[in-house]
Amino acid sequence: MLEAIMDRRNVEKALLQVERNKGVGGVDGMQTDELRDYLNTHYQQLRREVMAGIYKSSPVKKVEIPKPQGGVRMLGIPTVIDRLLQQSISRWMNQFYEPYFSAFSYGFRPNKNAHQAVLQAQTFLNEGKSYVIELDLEKFFDKVNHDKLMGLLMRKITDKATLQLIRQYLRSGIMEDGVVSQRIEGTPQGSPLSPLLSNIILDELDKELSKRGLSFVRYADDCSIYVRSEKSAQRVLASITHYIEKDLKLKVNKAKSKVSRPTESTLLGFSFYKSKGEWEIRIAKKTIERIREKSKTITKRNNGSNTRQKVLKIQALVQGWVNYFSIAKAKSVMQNLDALVRSRLRMGLWKEWKWCKTRVANLLKLKASKQKSYEWGNSSRGYCRVARSPILCTTLNNAYFTKQGYIGFYETYLRLTNATQPSLF
């Protein structure tokens, strides 16, 4: 198996994936754009070391990023050489596991995505399974039991050299401030091998849920189960928690795991509401709060950016965010977000214009009346009040910001949703 993993064709495909993913270098400082040149010179030596079982992986670089809900998430950044080898292992192993994974597992899999998970959840709700068990696995990637995982791998993989290399990656040290600490559990996020390994261990949970005849969707360690009554939901929550902790050796966060109704539940940033007897998809409230805060940060008056720079940054955010949430019914949400952004851009422009003389001149240039231009240009009213005034709303209107490059949430949403509507002809 290791011979096939290190085959030049497999390694070349892994290299292309590592280059596409980019990302920062690991503890040795080598960057992804340097990897191809390195392989042109050292590939045969690297292959010999791996095949002989003498290759030693480097520690991963510890990086902490803030979680949207608070706290931090630990990432372990391998060197680009280790990323290449892990990607090669993952590519080869995936063919042995992918056909056997559950149809209701949507994370880190080819031709599967978050939208499919949310649409499947909507289907379960409309079948009358409107009590949701939201499972939260406590620090899943940090708590994976190595012996349990290796035992599962040995069911399909008999090549000892490959198993040894995987275990070596599981036990790679973590470097922080120049000090390396050993790891006895977990598979840090940031590793190309971690998604496949997480699906291998959580496939055991999928099989258990299927064996019990339960309806569920899982995206990586985010799992929701759908049942018809609260009594059933409480019973399932207790029994599945026991199974996860006893059999999978993982920890369930009991404070965050709960039984909820669709309107209160959150799945991958989405929630649900009932309309005309059917459950529809909407954007979760916390998700809206987070995008509002991001938009405010980008459009702050005193962040050192001019209006053009702010528009470029906010439009880049808009495109990706709306693309992800385009399956939700969210026209009013998008319109409200645009109103927020445009109001803050007006405040930024008012500050840029700064002097009364400049403000008057710019208002006149935008075809405002002479009287109103002098009245508001010399006004001492605050930024927020001026931004909402009729004179700025009519001069710095939607068309003005469109010319500056701001397409906006609502227009982007309409373009995406109309493009996905089936043709009537």
Describe what you observe in this structure.
The chain is an alpha+beta fold and 425 residues long. It is 54% helix and 12% strand. It has helices spanning 2-5, 8-21, 32-52, 80-97, 114-126, 140-143, 146-153, 160-170, 194-211, 230-247, 285-298, 307-324, 331-353, 356-365, 370-377, 383-387, 390-395, 398-403, 409-420; strands at 60-66, 72-77, 131-136, 174-176, 179-181, 215-219, 222-227, 258-260, 270-275, 278-283. It has a four-stranded mixed β-sheet, with no helix packed on it. Helix 11 packs parallel to helix 13. The protein is globular, with a radius of gyration of 26 Å.
Short description:
This protein is an alpha+beta fold and 425 residues long.
List keywords for this structure.
globular, four-stranded antiparallel sheet, 425 residues, four-stranded mixed sheet, alpha+beta, 19 helices, single chain
Tally of extended strands? 10
Mean pLDDT value = 91
Q: How much is the radius of gyration in Å? A: 26 Å
As a percent range, the share of strand residues is 5-15%
Spatial strand arrangement across the major sheet? 2-1-4-5
Q: Could you spell the SSE succession in H and E letters?
A: HHHEEHHEHHHEEHEEHEEEHHHHHHHHH
Please describe the biggest sheet, giving its number of strands, its sense, and whether it closes into a barrel. Answer: 4 strands, mixed
Distance between the termini: 52 Å
Structural class: alpha+beta
Q: Roughly how much helix do the residues carry, as a percent range?
A: 40-55%
Give the uncertain stretches in residue-range form: none
Q: Helical region count?
A: 19
Shape: globular
